[in-house]
Amino acid sequence: MPALQQRPGDLALLCCFALLLPLLSHGADIPLGSTLSPRNSASWSSPNNTFSLSFTPSSTSPSLFVAAITYAGGVPVWSAGAGAAVDSGGSLRLSSSGDLELINGSGVVLWSSMTGGQGVTAATVEESGNLVLKNSKTTLWQSFDHPTDTVVMSQKFTSRMNLTTGPYVFSVDKSSGNLTLRWTSENTAVTYFNKGYNTSFTGHMTLSSPTLTIQTNGLVLLTDRRLTSSPVVVAYSSNYGESGDMLRFLRLDSDGNLRAYSAARGGDAASEQWSAVADQCQVFGYCGDMGVCSYNGTSPVCGCPSQNFQLSNPSNPRDGCRRKVDLENCPGNTTMLQLDNTQFLTYPPEVAAEQFFVGITACRLNCLAAGSCVASTALSDGSGLCWLKVSNFVSAYRSPALPSTSFVKVCFPGLPNPPPSL
Ligand SMILES: *[C@@H]1O[C@H](CO)[C@@H](O)[C@H](O)[C@H]1NC(C)=O
Ligand SMILES: *[C@@H]1O[C@H](CO)[C@@H](O)[C@H](O)[C@H]1NC(C)=O
Ligand SMILES: *[C@@H]1O[C@H](CO)[C@@H](O)[C@H](O)[C@H]1NC(C)=O
Ligand SMILES: *[C@@H]1O[C@H](CO)[C@@H](O)[C@H](O)[C@H]1NC(C)=O
Ligand SMILES: *[C@@H]1O[C@H](CO)[C@@H](O)[C@H](O)[C@H]1NC(C)=O
Ligand SMILES: *[C@@H]1O[C@H](CO)[C@@H](O)[C@H](O)[C@H]1NC(C)=O
Ligand SMILES: *[C@@H]1O[C@H](CO)[C@@H](O)[C@H](O)[C@H]1NC(C)=O
């Protein structure tokens, strides 16, 4: 009798293993033909469940999903197709030919590792967070070589790679090792951050393979084959030297800043330990086209230059501003509205084409007279310089600490903002 009574239990056990095995692969090799989808809420995990690859709801729309590798607790560190989102009918498939493919509900392949027919026999999520496609002998593709916006400990970020978020791109310059941040659009790119962390080293040497890493102790380092002595210290995390069961990582955030973070295992919050651009309002495009960045206490806020403008998207001030009356609708009846303590951001090499040595009155009048000029800035910092903005995307910064006076071209009459109450 006892033997018979055990049977239903055995069956239940069998049934559940059969269900669980294809869904939850703890560190085991993931065989060809395996599929993840938002519907089956399955995941491919590293041996100790430190990282797992699964579909998570997209940050832009709750009905869409991205295939992401997340650290235990929820910090995402990589996503297939740089965050390409699929609907609930989508999938991530390791095909029988060894290609890893992100497919949306309509069957369109949105992204692929391009490894079909190269002999891939299995995939693995490693304890480091690296997703590896391999055969019995070697690694044929790894996510560490194709970062999206994040670099984790033991990942090597080289000058051949980019981190990308929206219009922003982070890279390490191949010859100088400078860290660079760029804002990009269809036909323009603005480098708003370009910094060497050891000028005696970056100034006098051409590097061969500069590589950025974040160490388990929180140091952000730049190493290079030509740098025989010691690596360049880019930054110490604020909690440098602190240890524990945590993840440290670098991320290009959607606000265009590169930051170092740490996150405790199991916790969903990462805490900031360093940021490359100390002054967030210096990030080009942070407040969108024609947006003005300023600080409310320590928080950057976005507004419009004057009441001649309105927010392009009232629910997101970062989307910039547009004129209530377009300049082409008031030919011959434009005026330059004065904006105190304000700069229109201008970085090399744009600076060379847009700067002139003229005083504040000419800085205003020259822009008014030039049909293509939309705004100007008299630096008033002793340099005697005036920037005439002819670009079709301009980004402004207002701070009581800025000596500059700017002018923005609007249809008559100019309608200043009420004085800031900060
Ligand atoms: C998994 O965790 C155990 C216990 O903490 C540890 O001994 C082992 O080395 C870990 N395995 C890996 C691959 O990190
Ligand atoms: C699948 O992707 C294609 C191409 O991006 C797109 O046209 C289509 O609408 C998508 N279908 C679904 C269901 O998301
Ligand atoms: C990195 O970005 C640059 C310019 O934005 C581009 O030319 C290059 O192809 C990108 N590299 C990779 C690996 O995506
Ligand atoms: C690297 O950054 C330094 C400033 O830190 C700058 O003077 C230098 O021109 C930059 N080098 C390149 C190649 O952009
Ligand atoms: C800068 O680099 C030079 C050359 O490698 C090295 O001798 C020097 O110690 C470094 N300085 C700092 C502050 O890291
Ligand atoms: C500035 O911050 C205060 C306190 O957080 C808030 O009440 C106020 O609305 C903010 N002002 C703007 C312009 O964002
Ligand atoms: C300029 O525009 C204003 C407001 O629309 C109007 O009152 C004024 O007459 C115009 N001036 C000229 C010279 O067109």
Structure description:
The chain is mainly beta and 422 residues long. The chain folds into three domains: 15-145, Agglutinin, subunit A, CATH 2.90.10; 150-278, Agglutinin, subunit A (Orthogonal Prism), CATH 2.90.10; 286-411, no CATH class. 10% of the residues lie in helices and 38% in strands. It contains four helices and 36 strands. The protein has helices at 2-23, 199-202, 350-354, 360-369; strands at residues 24-26, 30-31, 35-36, 43-45, 51-57, 65-71, 76-79, 91-94, 100-103, 109-112, 122-125, 131-134, 139-142, 150-152, 157-158, 163-165, 168-172, 179-184, 189-195, 211-214, 219-223, 232-236, 246-252, 258-264, 270-275, 292-296, 299-303, 309-311, 321-323, 334-340, 342-344, 355-357, 375-378, 385-389, 396-398, 405-411. The chain has a five-stranded mixed β-sheet. Strand 9 and strand 10 (109-112) form a beta hairpin. It is globular and about 70 Å long. Mean pLDDT is 89; it is low at 1-23. Bound molecules: 2-acetamido-2-deoxy-beta-D-glucopyranose (7 copies). One 2-acetamido-2-deoxy-beta-D-glucopyranose is lined by residues 47-48, 127. One 2-acetamido-2-deoxy-beta-D-glucopyranose binds next to loops. Residues 27-146 form the Bulb-type lectin domain.
Strand runs, count: 36
CATH architecture of the largest domain: Orthogonal Prism
Distance between the termini: 82 Å
CATH superfamily of the largest domain: Bulb-type lectin domain
What sort of overall outline do the alpha carbons produce when their principal axes are compared? globular
What structural class do you assign from the helix and strand content? mainly beta
Provide the list of bound ligands, each named once: 2-acetamido-2-deoxy-beta-D-glucopyranose
Order of neighbouring strands in the sheet with most strands: 1-4-5-6-7
The average pLDDT value, as a whole number, equals: 89
SS strand fraction: 35-45%
Helix content: under 10%
Question: Number of helix segments?
Answer: 4
Query: Low-confidence stretches at least 5 residues in length (pLDDT < 50)?
Result: 1-23
- Major sheet attributes: 5 strands, mixed
Over the alpha carbons, how many angstroms does the gyration radius reach? 26 Å
Examine the coordinates and then state which fold CATH places here, giving the name of the CATH topology of the largest domain: Agglutinin, subunit A
**Which CATH class of the largest domain?**
Mainly Beta
